[in-house]
Amino acid sequence: MASNENNEDIKQDGDEATVGAESMATDSSNNAAKDEATSLQVDIHKTDVEVNSETDKPVADSGGGAADSTQAQTENCDKGETVTFKVIYNKQKYDITFELDKTILDLKKHVQTLTGVPSAMQKLMFKGLAKDENTLRELKVTKTAKIMVVGSTMNDVLQVTNTPSQKELQEEEKAATSKEPLCQQKQHKKVLDKYGKPDDALPGIRKKKEALPAYPLTGMYNKAGGKVRLTFKMELDQVWLGTKERTEKLPMNSIKAVVSEPLVGHEEYHMLALQLGPTEASRYWIYWVPAQYVDAIKDTVLGKWQLF
Q: Which residues contact 135 (CB under 8 A, 6 or more apart)?
């Protein structure tokens, strides 16, 4: 009897242990499920963060694209407004697109690449002689504009350059070392004393530089006392030397030098010579040239690149 009771107690304890184990297993399973659910929630939250982060990137990229677009527009604005016009040199026409706010000097540099004429040797003609500092906008260049280029290539210059003889060099050196003013030399003094100041002389201004006027220069005379008129035909690259008898059309590149000196006692006027040949004997003298136009005459005829 006692043995049977012990056996039943052992069985009962075993059943309770089994139930306890199963309960612990269930609790462990529940805890694992909870941990798995918590881990899943963390993963979902992390995924949401990553998705949001990835979603934000296109927005940032879109902003960068807008910035790039703005920068491109700014660069386009920086390039400035352009105009297409024609440049004519030696009967050849060039279609050029250029910025309106660029200067004539900038345009000369571009023309040099097309024509081979150095920018320093160019004269650009548009409603008269265009100054280097002027912009195309200031000159009101439009798509119908035609700009004339006057100038010679270095090869052309070298071909027409004459090497002076020893005698010519000696004559020039003698003239340079002479301290007597030109107007006091016998040949010129005789002319000035005989004809005096012309009644129709244009007003002269000493110590001032002005651009050539749009009209011919008059009120001057030559060594024979004949009235002289100077007309500058920039589009033809010519100087028209007019007298009562005839008008000589002189190509500007045929004039070797321009010499001038103030008249003593009348410094607002100069006596000026166009040297048409290699020696001083070929100088054509003109008297009572207004002083304010002398530098402009030299620059127009010879160009600033040529030194005399």
A: 100, 101, 102, 103, 104
